[in-house]
Structures are given as C-alpha cells and as structure tokens.
Amino acid sequence: MKQRFRMEFDLSSQPEIVQQAYGYALQGWELALSWLLSPVAWSQFGLLVLAYLLAILVARRLRPVLAIKIAPAKDSKGALADVRRFAVLFLPLLLPLLAYGFTAIGETLVRSMFDSGAVIAFGKRVFLFLAVRRLVRDIIHDPFLKVLGRYILLPIAALYMFGVLDDVLAALKSMQVTFGNISISVMALLRGAIAGSILFWLGGWSTRQTSQFIEAQEQMRPSVRQLVGKTIEFVIFATAFFLLLNIMGINLGALAFLGGAIGVGLGFGLQKIASNFISGVILLVEGQATVGDFVELDGGEKGTIVKMMARAAILETFDGRWIVVPNEDFITTRVTNYSDSGSANRFEAEFSVSYDTDINKVPALIEAAVSKHPDVLDEPYPPDCELRGFGDSGIDFAVEFWVEGLDDGPNKYTSDVLFLVWNALKDAGIEIPYPQRVVEIKGGLPQMKS
Fold this sequence. Notes:
Layout: H1 2-11, H2 16-36, H3 39-70, H4 79-88, H5 94-114, H6 118-139, H7 143-161, H8 165-174, E1 176-179, E2 182-185, H9 186-215, H10 222-247, H11 255-267, H12 271-286, E3 294-297, E4 302-308, E5 312-316, E6 322-326, H13 327-332, E7 335-337, E8 345-353, H14 362-371, E9 384-390, E10 395-403, H15 413-427
Antiparallel strand pairs: 1-2, 3-4, 3-7, 4-5, 5-6, 8-10, 9-10
Helix pairs in contact: 3-5, 3-6, 5-6, 6-7, 9-10, 10-12, 14-15
C-alpha cells in the first residue's frame, strides 16, 4: 500500500496523459487479477475456447459448400456473376465471424445465469478484431482502402476491443480547434477526413464504372457519351461534397455567402474558365468535334482529339506531342475537321512524263493502276488523272483519289499511289524525264594556253 501511495505521489508531478495511462494500466492489472481468481471467469474462458473450437469445426464443413454454391462458372459473365465472385472474397471471414456469433450466444447464457459476462464479452470483441484484421490483410486489395483500413479501421477495432473507444471519442469531441471565429471539434475534423476520403473514393470508383458502361453504348454518338459521362461525374462529386458537409455538421445555409463570392469571382477573374467550360458543353452537345477526330485550327494546331475535358481538349500530333487547346478556340475560330462522321478525304499525287509520250494513253493507264490500291475508294469519285500543264522538262499530270482517313501517321496513301504510278509507267515504257537545261556560251570557248 505504501509502495502504491509512493507511486501515485510521484505521478502527481507528471503530465496528465501519463497519469491517465497509469490509471488504465492499473485498472487492467486489477481486472486481470480478478479474472484469474474468479471461478466464473474461468467458466467464461472455457466457453470462449468451446466457441472457437465449434467455429473451426463448422467453418471447415461450411466453407467448401459455400464456395461451390456461391462461386459462378469460370466463363460466366454479367452483373450477377460479378456479385457472386465478389461474395466469394469474403469467405475467409467465416471463421472469426462464426466465433463471434457463438461467443455472443455464450455471453447471453452466462449473463442470464451469473449476471456477469465481462470475460466472454472481451473475447467476443477479440474475435471481431480478428475479423477486421483478416479483412484488411487478406480481402481488401485496393491501395487506398488498404491504407484506410490499416491506419483507421484497425485502430478503431483495437480501441473497441479494449473497451476504451467511447472514452477516446468523448475526449476527441471535447478538444476544439479554432479557425478565427469558427470552432470545430477534433472529432468532427477526423470524421470529415475519413468520410471525405471514402466518399470521394466511391465517387471516383462509380465514375469509372459509369464511364465504362456509357462507352459500351455504341449506338450513342461519341459526343453524347462524353456529355453524359461528364454530367454524371459532376453530379456524383457534387453529391459527395454536400454529403460531406452534412456529415461534418456544417450548415448549408452558411454557404450562401460563399456561393455569392464564387459568382463574383467567375464574373471577373474566372470568366475565361467559365467561357471554356460553357464552350466544352456546346461542343459535346453539338458534336462538331469529338474524341477521335483529326482537326486543324486557324492557329495551325492540328492533331487527333484524344481527350475532351471541362476546360480544354487535348490534341495528339503524329509525332507524339500533346497540344492543349482551350474549348473556346473551337467555338470562336474556324476549325477544319478531317474525320467528322467518318467522311472520306481527297488527296492527289503529282508526276511528269516525257514530251515524247503519247499523253492520250496516260489517264486511263494511271487510273487503272491506282484503282488496284485496296484503300482507294470508288465513292464519292473513282481515281481521276488530270493534265496539269506543260513544264520545262516534261508534261505535268496529277491523279486525284479518295480514301477513308488521313495521309499521315500509319497511312501512306500518297506514297503507295506514287509507287503504283512509277510501276505502271515503267511497264508501259513511258519515260519520267530528268530536268533539262540548255546552256549557251557566247563568244566561244576560251583557249587553253600550252
């Protein structure tokens, strides 16, 4: 007793947290001693062991049956099959949850017989902690959820297991953090951080799932798919934001002033962003340019649209560079779309023949040769060879042809057509002239001195 009094006297000069920790340790030691010396506590220990052994026996018999009943066939597809595969992942929780259930039944019997069940209640909480631990360690594979479970869910389960969760929550609620004239409890901040992380993770996951579903609807225009996807994304994250404010206990009426300030900011400092956002909505609605189109702007930027965002579109050039173009440029300037609605494009290949050639035979010869190319179209017009002029060294021709796509990047239509022209002229014995020049030297050649 004197030793204990001396220890309490020494602790009186220590910080409050040290005194509280000592108090909890002392209570735990006294509780353990009372359990070790109590026959009722030993009977509860026996019930815990019996419940665990029974859970092992039932889990060994039940788990294979559930795995066969729940797991779908390997080649099965669809939403129901995905749900069943997801349910199979939770089979490792069967043992600790069965132990928890059997222990709860034992606790009810013990409390009805002896009006005491502290030991078996602690064991029940231990089994629940083991279930949470297995959930975090073996079932959750998403990196964000695993971090959340490891540093938030497991500590909460541990505090609940030792029976101090309510005390910790009360202490956090009593601690206040002040921001100017606003005071908020530490518990509200932690609750907001946890809920915000979960809500926005769920928002990102649901947005990805929705986008995949919308992209699979091929009967919808690409621009409509983009518009629907962006609208759903905005609705999901706006809902998550307002739910977070509600969870943190922030009055939504207090946001009226903030909304007015944002409106003023959009009117003055953010008008360009607002203009680009509205232009992006117009583009998605009208479908003048969408993902996959090859466009060229007045400013010289050209490339394939690979992504359309709320503020800008991203063009990818054939040399691999990405160009960020504000959406407003698509509305206020002239835009040439080379691939809108899958329309064909016309190109031409120029060549020359010698003046000794019978040029009346050239058009039919070249048109027949170019028509053999598998990508050259007969509609809207077949290949057309035209006489363009009489040059210094030869007679100039050009063959026009229509193809689906662009003559750049993976496509080399003009190069292929020039090969066909070369081979057709060679086979017909038609000469492609070299440049010819006539040089006249006035006064004769200079005499060389010996």
